[in-house]
Amino acid sequence: MRHLLSAADLDRDAAVHVLDVAEEMAATQRREIKKLPTLRGRTVVNLFFEDSTRTRTSFEAAAKRLSADVINFSAKGSSVSKGESLKDTALTLEAMGADAVVVRHGSSGAPHRLAHAGWTRGAVVNAGDGTHEHPTQALLDAYTMRRHLRGGTGDLAGAKVVVVGDVLHSRVARSNVLLLHTLGAHVTLVAPPTLLPVGVEAWPCETSHDLDATLLRGEPDAVMMLRVQAERMDASKGSFFPSAREYSRRYGLGRERLGMLPDDTIVLHPGPMNRGLEISAEAADSARSTIVEQVGNGVAVRMAVLYLLLAGEIPGGDA
Ligand code: CP
């Protein structure tokens, strides 16, 4: 596999291989090993056309812990503001020599274009494209679940995962559904009808509009709360939910719903969070919450992805 563009690029063996290698990379996260020499002399370009805190910094940390040289590019403050295109930006950075390009872009499909248009010879990693996919987020979420569920045995087959909230605008939800299905988990998406995408019936998961019924009936192993992405909501299309208070009442994770969960159910959120909207401070900061741990796990997972792509060691997928 040359690029990681979609969670669907990974079959079960490839996904498990990435997660197993991430376990080994986590030694740097625990600071048992400071740095690995694996990517010495290689260059990783972080090409970010949209804002990011976790993904950009964790890819930077991952590349540096593998001894790669890192070029960080943010569209803000660059010649993109003068109208320079993705193609010309990519060609400019390619001229500086990129072995891997980690790209986040507001347009769904931009990483596919970059990978297949010949604008870079490097491996392309999708770090989030529009409302489409965020495969490394799904990998770090699966990695986090593997560490907690089933006594940390690493097997997610049969695990019950409930994903709640703004699925319509969420690249995290789509990538998680695809990857968790590949790993044998059972996913239920819970959202108001206005925040489920057209065609969701074809996704390999169940859907519901009733969070309380889903939590009570399902006894989930993991509950993943999604950010309400106000910046992607088109005001001209009307309101996506009656009010913040009503959304929170029907779909937010607060004290009452925390109390409905089995004792060992974990709570995930990809961040950034709208505290008080989709998740209360009590839930976000509770002992069940893996939200801060997810960020740290992201470094190990991204180390594994960069290492395996540049070593050509992930079989199959997007060649
Ligand atoms: N989860 C995630 O993609 O966060 P950032 O937008 O901060 O990278």
Give a structural overview.
By secondary structure, the protein is an alpha/beta fold. 37% of the residues lie in helices and 14% in strands. It has helices at 12-29, 54-65, 86-94, 110-116, 135-148, 171-182, 211-218, 244-251, 255-260, 281-284, 291-311, and strands at 43-48, 69-74, 100-105, 123-129, 160-164, 186-190, 206-208, 222-225, 266-268. Strands 7-6-5-8-9 form a five-stranded parallel β-sheet, sandwiched between helices. The protein has a four-stranded parallel β-sheet with strand order 2-1-3-4, with helices on both faces. Strand 5 (160-164), helix 6 and strand 6 (186-190) form a beta-alpha-beta unit. The structure holds phosphoric acid mono(formamide)ester. GO terms for molecular function: aspartate carbamoyltransferase activity. Its EC number is 2.1.3.2.
